[in-house]
Amino acid sequence: MTALLEGLPRNQGQLLPALHRVQHELGWVPRESMTVVAKHLRLTEAQVYGPATYYAEFRLSPPPKRLVTWCSGPSCRVLGGDRVLNILEAELGCRLGRNDSSGEVGLWLGQCNGTCERAPQVWVDGRVVGPLSLADTVRLARGVAAGETVVDVPEGALQIESTATQVGAYRHGGDS
Ligand code: FES
Question: For ligand 1, is residue 69 a contact (CB within 6 Å)?
Answer without folding.
Answer: no
